[in-house]
């Protein structure tokens, strides 16, 4: 098989968690108290999120999925201990089983206040948690090329990660996220300048609060030299997060080889995202290339086959096969 350039060496993961009151079963606006009980480490930093019912753990860049798994595991243990000391449980789920009875977004953070002013009722009760994967790239032009190539695979990553069952959907989080302007699969970009211009245009139009924000399911990180996958629901386990990271990095590596991606229609990609949110891996999916319904597991198998050269080059193919086997 063709070798895959090692231009995407590092991976990092941001995990968002819900804080649930053990007595009532509802999410609790206690993020500040929990975060005060944990300390950043060389492996992981802890952050507040938009909702006061959420906390985030962000790993540093890792080259090994083993190191990544260790960092994720230690972060979960630290947050679970801190939450327990506050009478709370740490829940890794895309949306809460029982949401908070309070408004969850505070105006204490000036940027969060601008978000609340801009999106009003859309964010007042927004308690959606994701598993965001950062993959290192050598430059922004390569990053944009990656975005163009991986667009059709994003719905499959969503189906694989679906972890917010509610109202008949496998990923209710994605339904909630679709209420924001510009949510979904990003358009095709001609280059980094075009990407920046499109973000700036949406800021000028008032649908984004600043140029660090977007609602695309994959984007260029506004702060780091990475491509950021934002499509997945919060991962139930560390192993699920590692699987998402390994597949995401492999997708970036294959995309970095160059060439023009096979065109897919924006409306078909949107149909694929909706179908993935509705059924997850347990039903049909939309094939963005053939523009028809197929079993969701067939697209997952195609994804693994697509990135097999990258996984083999890193010695991760067996691990991915094992982890996928647990999901299907």
What would you say this structure looks like, in words?
This protein has 328 residues and is of the alpha+beta class. The chain has 2 domains: 14-127, no CATH class; 130-328, Creatine Kinase, Chain A, domain 2, CATH 3.30.590. The strands form 2 sheets. Strands 1, 2, 3, 4, 5, 6 and 7 form a 7-stranded antiparallel beta sheet that branches. Strands 8-9 form a two-stranded antiparallel sheet. The chain contains 12 helices and 9 strands. β8 (284-287) and β9 (292-295) form a beta hairpin.
Please, what is the average pLDDT? 94
Number of structurally distinct domains = 2
Q: Give start-end ranges of low-pLDDT stretches.
A: 1-7
Profile the largest sheet: 7 strands, antiparallel
N-to-C terminal Cα separation, in Å? 26 Å
Number of helices: 12
Task: Return the CATH topology of the largest domain.
Answer: Creatine Kinase, Chain A, domain 2
CATH class of the largest domain: Alpha Beta
Share of helical residues: 40-55%
Element-level helix/strand string: EHEEHEHHEHHHHEEHHEEHH
- CATH architecture identity of the largest domain: 2-Layer Sandwich
Shape: globular
Strand content: 15-25%
The computed structural class is alpha+beta
Q: Report the radius of gyration as a whole number of Å.
A: 19 Å
Number of strands: 9
Protein name: Putative glutamate--cysteine ligase 2
Enzyme class: ligase
Catalytic activity: L-cysteine + L-glutamate + ATP = gamma-L-glutamyl-L-cysteine + ADP + phosphate + H(+)
GO molecular function: ATP binding; glutamate-cysteine ligase activity
């Amino acid at each position: 098989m063709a070798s895959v350039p090692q231009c995407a060496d590092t991976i990092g993961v941001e995990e968002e968690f819900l804080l649930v009151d053990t007595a009532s079963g509802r999410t609790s606006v206690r993020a500040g108290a929990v975060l005060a009980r944990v300390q950043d480490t060389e492996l992981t930093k802890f952050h507040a999120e938009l909702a006061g019912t959420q906390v985030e753990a962000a790993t540093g860049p890792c080259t090994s999925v083993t190191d990544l798994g260790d960092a994720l595991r230690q972060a979960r243990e630290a947050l679970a201990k801190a939450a327990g000391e506050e009478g709370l449980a740490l829940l890794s789920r895309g949306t809460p089983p029982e949401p908070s009875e309070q408004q969850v977004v505070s105006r204490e953070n000036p940027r969060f206040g601008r978000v609340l002013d801009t999106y009003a009722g859309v964010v007042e009760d927004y308690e959606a948690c994701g598993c965001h994967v950062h993959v290192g790239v050598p430059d922004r032009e390569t990053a944009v090329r990656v975005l163009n190539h991986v667009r059709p695979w994003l719905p499959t990553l969503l189906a694989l990660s679906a972890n917010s069952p509610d109202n008949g959907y496998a990923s209710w989080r994605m339904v909630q996220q679709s209420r924001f302007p510009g949510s979904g699969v990003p358009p095709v970009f001609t280059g980094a300048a075009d990407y920046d211009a499109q973000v700036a245009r949406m800021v000028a139009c008032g649908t984004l609060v600043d140029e660090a924000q977007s609602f695309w399911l994959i984007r260029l990180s506004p702060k780091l030299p990475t491509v950021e996958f934002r499509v997945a629901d919060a991962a139930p386990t560390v192993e699920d997060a590692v699987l998402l990271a390994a597949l995401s990095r492999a997708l970036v590596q294959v995309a970095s080889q160059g060439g023009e991606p096979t065109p897919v229609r924006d409306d078909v990609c949107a149909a694929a995202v909706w179908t993935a949110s509705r059924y997850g891996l347990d039903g049909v999916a939309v094939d963005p290339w053939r523009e028809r319904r197929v079993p969701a597991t067939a697209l997952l198998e195609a994804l693994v086959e697509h990135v097999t050269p990258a996984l083999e080059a890193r010695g991760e193919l067996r691990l991915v096969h094992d982890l996928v086997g647990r999901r299907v």
